[in-house]
Amino acid sequence: MILTQILQPTCIKVPLEGSDKEAVITELIDVLAANDYLLDRNVVLESVLLREQTRSTGIGSGIAIPHGKCGGVKELVMAIGITAQPIDFDSIDNRPVKIVVLLASPLDRTGPHIQALARISRLMLDDGFKTKLEQAATAEEVYTLISSKEHE
């Protein structure tokens, strides 16, 4: 799976304005809604927040991948945000988060959802790439970094 087939440059926000987990999740969902990628914003928000209550999606190393499966989308959608200041995300390593990658997918499309989660996780294993993302000043820079990394 190539993430830039899912991620659109207009669905990247740098910097995120929120200062807590729920605020940045809501902010990224609003970015998707503003780009007409959601059938029902509130259903998607509820799905992602419910998943987050079950177990934090702060995967460690300054990264969070909030996600949900619901009827509020017709296909897998993705938004990325970089925070200005690290925020608490109840991560498994107790470290704050700077990179937030949000995914939402339909209930009946588990395969692409899992593939996207795995692809994001693999990309973020590269510390040099992750550092460049954290330091990106614009949405265009984030998109270019991801696109270049995927075509290595």
What does this 3D model show about the protein?
By secondary structure, the protein is an alpha/beta fold. The protein has one domain: Mannitol-specific EII, Chain A. Helices cover 41% and strands 22% of the residues. It is built from five helices and six strands, in the order E-H-H-E-E-E-E-E-H-H-H. Strand 2 (58-60) and strand 3 form a beta hairpin. Helix 1 (21-34) runs antiparallel to helix 2 (41-54). The longest helix is centred in the first third of the chain and has 14 residues, at 21-34. It is globular and about 35 Å long. The protein starts with 11 loop residues before the first strand and ends with a helix.
Order of helices and strands: EHHEEEEEHHH
> What is the CATH level 1 assignment?
Alpha Beta
Average pLDDT, all residues = 94
End-to-end separation in angstroms reads: 14 Å
Strand content: 15-25%
Q: How many domains, in number, for the residues? A: 1
In which range does the helix fraction lie? 40-55%
Main β-sheet description: 6 strands, mixed
* Radius of gyration, in angstroms, nearest whole number: 14 Å
Number of strands: 6
SS element count, helices: 5
The name of the CATH superfamily reads Mannitol-specific EII, Chain A
Helix-and-strand structural type: alpha/beta
Write the CATH architecture name. 3-Layer(aba) Sandwich
CATH topology: Mannitol-specific EII, Chain A
Question: What's the overall geometry?
Answer: globular
Poorly predicted ranges: none
